[in-house]
Amino acid sequence: MSLLTSLIKASTQFQQAMEKRPSSAPGNTAAKPAAPEPPASATDDRFTLSERASSEAARPKSARLSMAEYRQTVGQDLAYMRETLRHKLAEYKLNPATSVEVSKDNAGKISLSSGMPEQTRARIEQDLNNSKPFREAFSRLSASEPTLHFVDNALKLNKAYGVNNSLLDTLVSDNQQFNGLQDLAHRYDSMRQTVSSDQATGYSDRRNFALSLNTRA
Length: 217
Prior knowledge:
The chain is mainly α. It has a domain at about 65-215. It has seven helices and three strands.
């Protein structure tokens, strides 16, 4: 047998042997099952967010009110009015312990009641009516102070006896952006104009609002 014949025969046998081997192509390889996803734990973010949302929904709307901020707002206006009156008493050489009641008359002007001489009282009253900051501070207080008083009492009753005030809930917006003290005051004023006279008995009317101020307080 020649060398060429031997090489051809060997090549043919090698090719036949390769064709008989089982195919191991990648496409025929069985896919490995995907690893199961571990169960979510109690500390999973999805659980935390869900529990937080449920907790917020369960809280009464009145719990969102910023009472400390409201008191600070009212306190700033009160302090400004008290300081203004203190300067007026000093300017007119009156006793610094003089008590003054500030209100508005039927024409909407600042009115003073006090034991000071009538002529002096009238002059101070005119000075205050000419002061835009004082008039604005009183207007804000005539709305915000009764509102704060109502909200504070309702929350205290709720905390002490578990009594929920449905009227208070109507004052509170679902959007926290609209729960500022002036927002509540506007809704409170509208509410007391629409509720029955029996329900409105304990609500302050801003038109009859008056402040008794002692400048040494």
